[in-house]
Specification:
The chain is built from eight helices and no strands. With about 260 residues, the protein is mainly α.
Length: about 260
Amino acid sequence: MSQWLVFALTMAVACLIVLGVVVIRDRHSSAVSNPDETPDVIEYMTMMVGVVYAIVLGLAIAGVWEARNAADGAVCQEAQALHEVRERVAVWPAPVRDRIRDDVDHYVQYVTTTEWPSMLRTGTLSSQGATLLETMRRDVSDYTTANDHEQQAYQPLVDQVAAVDAARSAREQAAAPILPGVVWLGLITGAVITVGLIFTLQIRRSPRELLVAGVFSALIAFLLCFIWDFDAPYGRVATGTVSAFAQLIAAAHGG
């Protein structure tokens, strides 16, 4: 199911629930009830709860947004380091160069086709990916350079392999959801309380009041869906930021 379809359905359901409650409550309320009789303290409490919940939502959005940017950065760093390994090894003899480039291609192919979907499901990386990276590291570090020109490329290659390892570790740390369960409990409970408090204001069935209630509930639902989606730093589907590795494969085979 499309992500935007999920968002739209969630917003529509939230809006329909609130409007349905308003209509049903108004039908069963006393005909002589007066909306102007709402105590001032209820209006004040409703406003304060809304402000506090808005602050909480803002902090949650800032947290998941920052985590998503950090996750994207880790992927780009890993892909760039792999690309540097593949390009810098060009000065080494053909057998060594081809073997290391094969190591890079095998690692990238495994990450994009196997490890990435598994990472989205479990939040952890596989031992096979670490083994492929170790093979690459060993093939680079075990080579004995034959001249100064090859020696100049040796240390940068070792550094780039280390950068791949560091970025891989950062990718694993960013794979798990950001917000703990207790935070989600607070967000959902706060949404229910905030939306529920609007009924204390004696909303009637006038088009203007129904529009405000519907838009308000749809907005809360959208923000919660937004946080839910960004709470998975690499997205809810296997395409996500794996495009950085896909571009690396295209560049490697295109060159």
